[in-house]
Amino acid sequence: MDITQLDALLHENADLMHQAQPGSWQFDYFGRTLIVLSDERANRMRIITPVAEIADMSPEDVSTCLSANFDRALDARYAASGEYLWSAFIHPLAELVDTQLVDALMQVATLAVTYGTTFSSSGLTFGATPEE
Question: Using one digit for the tens of pLDDT, what is the confidence trace for 57-77?
């Protein structure tokens, strides 16, 4: 995929596009504001959305986010940067295919929404859950 294809897919899937310029987009998607950043020269792209302020997180939430990254977050991940916890999907741009992008958008949004409850990016888990 290149940024022209990425742009077309993001416009097709966004509920409301707020900002779009080569390599950078901000838009509403299922009630979340998502940001997509890409760099063709570095062959990287990322989809992110803010989840919580790190200062407001309990130690249990931090631990649960780390555990969720192992078994419930699937392709999206919780990540910390600056003062915020983010839901993020990071992938090589050229190797990204349409279906992966659409799935990644949903996983990033879902992982943010489920923070504090199931901490999951979908209904799937990988391996045993902590209760098992």
Answer: 999 999 999 999 999 999 999
Left if phi > 0, otherwise alpha if psi is -120 to 50, otherwise beta: which for 124?
beta
pLDDT score, position 37: 98
Half-sphere exposure of 81 (CA within 13 A, CB side): 10
Name the pTM for this structure: 0.92
Q: 90 to each of 47, 58, 59, 79, how far by Cα in Å? A: 7, 26, 25, 11
Using one digit for the tens of pLDDT, what is the confidence trace for 80-115?
A: 999 999 999 999 999 999 999 999 999 999 999 999
- Angle of the 3-13 helix axis to the 98-113 helix axis, nearest 10: 50
- Which positions ≥6 away from 79 have C-beta within 8 Å? 48, 85, 86, 87, 88
Q: Kindly list the structural domains of the chain, giving each domain's residue range(s) and its CATH number in brackets, ordered by start.
A: 3-113 (3.30.1460.10)
